[in-house]
Each structure stands twice: as C-alpha cells, then as structure tokens.
Amino acid sequence: MAALLGTASTPALAATTESIRTTPVVLVGVPGLLWEDVTPEHTPTLWAMAGDGAIGNVSIRTAGSRTCPTDGWLSVSAGQRALAEQEGSRVCEPAPEPLPDGSGAVVPDHSDLVETNRASPFAAPVGLLGQTVRDHGGLTLAAGPGAALGAADASGRVDHYLESAREVTPERLDGVSLAVVELPHLTRLHPAPASGDVAERDREEALGNLDSRLAALTSTLPTGASMMVVGVSMDTGPSRLTAAMTGDMAEHGLTGTSAYLVSESTRRPGLVSLTDTTVTVLNALGMRPDAFTGGRVWRLSERPATAEAAVARLVDFNTAAVVVGASIPGFFSGLVALQLLIYAAAAYALHRHSDGQRDKRALALSVTRTVALAGAAFPVASYLANLIPWWAMPSPSPALLLSVLAVDALVVAVAMAGPWRRTVLGPMTVVAGATTLVLFLDLCFGANLQMNSPTGYSPIVGGRFYGIGNIAFATFATGMLMTVAGIAHVLIGRGRRRAAVATTLVIGAASVLVIGWPGLGTDFGGVIALIPGLAVTTMMIAGVRVTVPRLAVVGAAAVTVITLLTWMDHLRPPADRSHFGAFAEQVANGEAGAVLARKSEAMLGTLGNWQLTLLAAGALLFLFAVLNRPTKWRIGALQRAYEHAPTLRAGLTGSLVTALVGFAANDSGVAIPALALTIAVPLTLSACVWALQQRDQAPEQEPAEENRLKRA
Fold first, then answer.
1. What is the dihedral of CA 378, 384, 387, 392, to 10 degrees?
2. CB 32 within 8 Å of CB 187
3. Which three-class secondary structure string do you get for 126-190?
4. For the chain, give me the number of helices (H) and strands (E)?
5. Minimal CA–CA distance to 276: which of 286, 262, 259?
6. pLDDT for residue 230
7. Partners of 101 in the beta sheet?
8. Among 257, 296, 341, 644, which is least packed, fewest CB within 10 Å?
9. Alpha carbon distance 124, 118 (integer Å)
10. Residues paired with 457 in a beta bridge
11. What angle is formed at CA 230 by the lines to CA 36 and CA 107, rounded to 5 degrees?
C-alpha cells in the first residue's frame, strides 16, 4: 500500500498499475474509531500498525449533518458524499442485512439507495467502488452488513458475503481483489442512536475485542496484501475526526512506511477525507473510477519520528476541531451581541456628544473609538489565536476565548500606541492592515491559521480544507479595501494621487491573485466578488466617476480572470486540480447545473440564519441611520469623517459592493456581508469619532465647515 500511495510530492493516481494485482486489498471499516482510542495497552495491534504504517485523521462528513454507519459506508461505495434518506426525514439506522444468493449476496432495496443519492445535491454514484472492481474483472468480498453496502456494485451485489469478520479465512480470500470488512464493536455499545456515552470500562473492553479481531484478521492475509483501517462513521454523539491507517503484509507481519496520510482533497498532512478512501482502494488495485468522485488518492507525508508524538499531534488536532465546532454557535452569538452592543453604546455616546455634555463626552468618545477598534479586530484575533496552543491547555474552550481576547487587545494597543492615533484613519488603517497582512501571509504559507478557527473552517464540517474560506474572504477583502483607503488618504494628503492609485492597484492585484490562485486562496467566488469592489474603490480614489459602462468593463474583466484561472487549473492532472479545474470538468460533463443549483440553494438558505441576518441589518442601520444622523451642527458624523478623509468613502463603498456581490456569488450567502460589515462599520465608526473629537477641540470652525459641506 505504501509503495502504491507514493510521497506527498507524487501526483495522485500516478502510481496506478497496468494490471489487476493478485493479492487482495482489505478495507476494514471501524465506525467510531478515534485516535484517542489507540493505545499500547488496549489496542496493541492498532498501535503497532500506527507505529509502522501511515496514519491520519479522517473527515467523515457525508451528505447529512451527522455521519452514521449507513451514510459512511454509502459514501465509501460512491466516492462522494452520500446518505441513506433525504435530509429532514432521516434517522441513523443499522446497515441493512444483505440477502444470501449462493456464494454472493444482494443488498435489499439497494436501487432505492442509488436513486436517492442520484437525486441528492452531491449526485453520489452509489455502487461505484464495487462496480469498478467488477468491470475490471475483479471479485469482491464483504464481511458484515455495513461492508456489503460499501462493496456492492451498482445492482447491490457482492461476489462473496460473510456474516462477520470471524468467518474470514485465507481460503475465503483466495482470488478476491477487494475485501471489505466491518468491525462494529464500538457501535454495539449503543443499541439506540440517541444513547449517551458509555462507561469507560465498557469502551475499553470493546476496543480490546475489536483489536483482537483485527489481529485475527491480519493473520489470515497473504503476503503482499494491503490493509486500510478507516473509521467510516461515528458510533454516537456529535461528529469528530476518526482514525485511518495503512499497512502491507510481509512475511514477518504487517508493516509499512511511517508517515502521515494526506490527499489533494485536504492538502494537510495527517488529514484525509472519507471519500478519498474509494479512489485510494481503486488506485491500490490498479483501477480508476469511470465517474467523478469527490475524493483523491492518499499519499504519504513526513511525520514525527515516534508513534507517540505522531498520534499525540493527531489527537490534538481532533481536540481543536471538536472545541471549535462546539464553540462556533456561541462564538457567533457572542459576536452578534458584541457588535450590537457596540452600535448601541456608540449611538448613546454620539447622542451625548450632540447634546453638548462636554464634561463627559470626551471620555465617552475615546472609549467608543477603542471599543470600535476592538470589535473590528476580533476576526483577525480569532486567526492569530491559533499561534497559541490553546488546544493543549487543560480547559481548551476557555483557553480559546482568552487567547482571542488577548490577541484582540494586543492589536488594539498597537493601533492606539503610535503617532498615527492622532490621525483620522491611522488606527483604522493599522487594524485593517493587520487583518490584511495576517490573512495574506497565512494563504502564502498554507492557511494554517484558518484551520480550526471560529471564523475559518472546520475539518469536521468539511466544507473546505485549504485556501481561503468565505468568512475569511469577507474579512480579508474588507480589511484590504479599508487599508488602501487609509494609505491613499496619506498619499493624497501629500499631493501624490497617482501614487495612491498605483498603490491601490498593486495591493488589490496581489489580493486578487492570492485569493484566486489554485493552491493558495483557490476561491472562485472571491475573485468575482473582490474585483468589482476593488474597481469602485480605485475609481473613487482616482477621482474617476463610477458609471454603468465602466462597471460593465470591470465585470467582463472579472469573468476573464476567472476563466483564465479555471483554464490554467484544468490543464493540470485531474488529481491535482482544485475546485476551479473540477468545476471546468463538471461544465464539460454537463454536471455544473446541479452544482450551481446546490450552491444557490445554500446561499438563499443562509437568510434563515437570524443571527447573521440581524448582524448585517444592524450594521447597515447603524451606518446609514445613526452615523448619518445630523448632530446639533446639522452634519452627520459620517459626513464629518468624509470631510477629513474622502478616501474613507471609497474604502467603505468598495467593501459594501464586494459584500453584496459576495452574498450572491458564494454559498455562504449572508455570512459574507455580515462579516464584512463587522469590520467595515466599526472601522468607520473609529474615524467618525475622531472627526467629532476634532470639532470639540475647535467648535468655532463649525459654521464655516457646515457651509463648505453644503456647497459640496
């Protein structure tokens, strides 16, 4: 298996052989197997395999919100995310019992599973694995009802069926190409899907029995056979990352190459996707699937020298994923509450300023400015917090929150520390610039800060494993547009408008490139959304009028850039393509319509997220109703800020354009404008407060200023 997998630098599927191998590939599915279960004391066979073979975490996300054994096995069968029934009416049930038919078996109601998944958003081709083996002249064997689901061909048939792994013998494996074996020891601890955790002693006993059965199975394998052990699903409770390992049978026992598993699906050493299992098995057999799959072949990557260190790192990664996954609802609830509190407090402070209570308003405005900057810095702080190993702390959840707050305070301290604090856009530019720089560098070095971040992406959710996520895109794009507005303000103030425009174009072009380049940001919708916002900001900084024909040219440029990036990615080998190239292939195959329909449905469905919808609505209301509300001098705070820094309007307008286009072009929908406004509005508020503070210091200038604004 290790020889067929290759190294991380080897193109996926490049090791495919020319003929069917004579020894079997054995896929062992263990629902609920976690790396924290694998220890020298309770699972010596698994531990020895982990020490000598390639190992990794598995993202088991299927078409549903939670992966039960049936869903997991169907996803292995299809090489694509699958499910047992349509979402909403589905419950996790045991895999169906196959019907004996001579030496083989037929899975009952298999045609219903095929039709259900063919009509699902992922169009999963259930039966792909077994059908490909059959089409190449190979034979399949399944041990256990779940294994029968995984190994069955398109008609639901397996060539040989055994009731359990106990019946697997060397004679049974003779002539078999693919053997799929189910070890359901952990699921049997939970007879009902909704049952809670079991006693630790019972789980340890089940793990011991599982390990003994695996040892017995290993002893039946002929020399040259390959084995893959995969946690195909969860046994109970919320989803987590499961365990995967591989090895080859030698004369002295099971062995392999000590390495982490990785694939082009995740591009992260030590992490693979469940759907990668299908093409990896076929690759080991010297076969290729005829239909499109969501998975890519496992490959090998460097890992720590000792099994203890390698497994500990996988456990830590899973811990971070679980903590972040559990924290996300509370995190966004807190973010919404914090932002609305900032808006309410700012509205009160501005009202006090308008009433002329001069003895207290100076302090109130200073606090308002600092709090606004803290709110805008919260997203970038959630990424920088991953530089702190909070997941290794005794209490990871509180450690994550404290890490975010500490980094947030540090960013605000830098923004308010230097001489730039005395300028209208200085602190704003520091916070926005830090946001831009952090995410730009993160993309250049593998996007590690986004993984397992509350505003990044989660391997458990499995929506994205590399590049820039939609929420991170909203953060990065808004930060970049507000940054160039701040830089342009300084340059124009020095009489260097051309330099301001050139700087905006250079920073903007670099941002578009890093967002869209396959292997870096790899964000199809992000390029579409950012180019119009960047164009509007650039034109306003240049003093050029924004017109419909000019915007049409910008739209054509965005389509051209996307087409070019997609074409370049499509020229790469199929297994090395990002979703740019994969989408081009789907267009060629006529499958793009289903993909676009699924994404449009997901985008519109986000409007049902009342928290993010409330956040976006509250930000817009505050921006255009509160900040534009006339004060005692009949001039809104926002207009005052524009008077001191006209480029602020350019950055804010460009951010709003990008947020609107991003809403329409991405399946995250309302999350993009919500996060964009979470940064843009507090940054704008900080500039508005500065403008009001200046009027406090020179009130006698107000009549002249009001006249200038009226003339403008």
1. 30
2. yes
3. CCHHHHHHHHCCCCEEEECHHHHHHHCCCCCEECEEECCHHHCCHHHHCCCCEEEEECCCCHHHC
4. 24, 14
5. 262
6. 97
7. 104
8. 341
9. 6
10. 451
11. 135
Q: How does DSSP assign 24-86, residue by residue?
A: -EEEEE-TT--GGG--TTT-HHHHHHHHHSEEEEEE---SSSS--HHHHHHHHHHTS---SS-
Residue with tokens 């380049």: 517
CA-to-CA separations, 66 to 31, 119, 125, 255, in angstroms, rounded:
13, 19, 20, 33
The average confidence (pLDDT) of the chain is 84
Burial of 403 (0-12, 13-18, 19+ CB in 10 A): buried
The string of DSSP letters for 218-271 reads HHTPPTT-EEEEE--S-SSSS---EEEEEEEEETTEEE---EEEE-TTT-BTTE
Please state the separation of Cα 462 from the chain's center in Å: 6
Q: Please, are residues 509 and 502 in contact by the beta-carbon 8 Å criterion?
A: no
Do 594 and 609 form a contact (C-beta atoms < 8 A)? no
Asked whether 477 and 676 are in contact (CB, 8 A), the reply is: yes
- pLDDT per residue as tens digits for the range 86-125: 444 445 666 777 776 666 889 988 999 999 888 887 889 9
- At residue 623, the 3 state secondary structure works out as helix
Do residues 98 and 108 lie in contact, with contact meaning Cβ atoms separated by under 8 Å? yes
Which helix (H) or strand (E) segment is 273 a member of?
strand 271-273
| Contacts with 439 (C-beta within 8 Å, 6 or more apart), sequence order | 380, 383, 449, 450, 468, 472, 475, 476, 479
Name the DSSP class of 636: B
The neighbour count for residue 411, using CB atoms within 10 Å, is 22
Q: What percentage of the chain carries pLDDT values higher than 70? A: 82
- Give the separation between CA 389 and CA 421, rounded to whole angstroms: 32
* Contact between 494 and 475 (Cβ < 8 Å): no
Question: How does strand 242-250 pair with strand 253-255?
Answer: antiparallel
Cα(693)–Cα(424) distance, integer angstroms: 10
Sorted by sequence, the CB contacts under 8 Å of residue 257 that are 6+ apart come out as: 2, 53, 54, 300
Cα–Cα dist 130/104, whole Å: 13
- What secondary structure letter does DSSP report for 668? T
Short-list 306, 219, 230, 212, CA closest to 274: 230
**Total residues found in the chain within this entry:** 712
Token pair 């975490």 in the structure block, residue? 57
> Measured between alpha carbons, how far is 303 from 136 in angstroms, rounded to an integer?
35
Average pLDDT, stretch 173-194?
Answer: 81
User: Bridge-partner residues for 143, per DSSP?
Assistant: 162, 181
pTM of the model: 0.84
Mean pLDDT computed over 449-454: 93
List phi, psi (to 5°) of 213.
-65, -35
Q: Look up residue 450 and give its amino acid.
A: Q
Residue type present at position 370: T
